[in-house]
Amino acid sequence: MSFPLDPQIDFDFNARESVASFEDEFGKLVTLSNHAIATLPRQASLVFDEASGAALDLYGVETGRPVFLWIHGGYWRLGNKEGNAFAAPGLVANDVAVAVMDYSLAPAVNLEQIVHEVRSAVAWLHREGPALGLDTRKIHVGGSSAGGHLTGAVIAGGWHAEYGLPENIIGAALALSGIFDLEPLLSTQVNSWMNMDMDTVAALSPLRHIPDQSETQLVLSVGGDERDGFLRETDRFHTAWAAKGHAVTQIEMAGFNHFDITGTLTDPNAKLVQATLNAIRACP
């Protein structure tokens, strides 16, 4: 089913055109990622989903460390784990192991399959992490843009039993520039490759699946220079999560855009890194 393009909504959610040069912003993140790969202890391409072959890289594994799973953005059709290694250095320097995952990309697969793979990565870390020496009593997660949506899908309620997980498995969650209600995207160019409909919206919008009970310590942020669609989505999710009585902190990032906000994760002292560490420590 096709939906008419709404020029204003499309503008509000067009991240690529929200910066002067997407190529420059992307290039900066690639440089940061290449440095992380070259300098951090790394276990590469560990397959967590046999059916799809999806794999993750583990950085900074040491006995007793908690693990944080990073889920990349790219509107579900672009990106890979190598290009997102920038998410590891700041947390690794603070004694947190970081897993950076791949997932199958649209339009070859639909959003349901992508969400399945992300949840499978959580289950794999919970199951296999102890043999690596990791503390997986809680799995901590984060992502940006589409990865923010997928983070929301992981902290949603109702899916854990199917994957052999306890309902309270997710500890800290860092959602940057996320899309938490998919309905606006039906009227954007994004749906030309996502092929979503109202059933997709109902099933996979995190805003519509906030659990009644949650121990997750949620950290939200969005760049102050981002377009209104992303600003609205973060504010709406903050309000809805807090309305359930759940723990949530929103970090202001004035002067940052949709892309360079993620690059701050390389800095051990960055606001988003420290907020994530505080959330991990606050987990029951």
TrEMBL record:
Coiled coil: none annotated. Keywords: Hydrolase. The keyword Hydrolase applies. Transmembrane segments: none annotated. Residues 63-151 form the BD-FAE-like domain. Pfam families: BD-FAE. This is Alpha/beta hydrolase. GO terms for molecular function: hydrolase activity. InterPro entries: AB_hydrolase_fold (IPR029058), BD-FAE-like_dom (IPR049492), GDXG_lipolytic_enzyme (IPR050300).
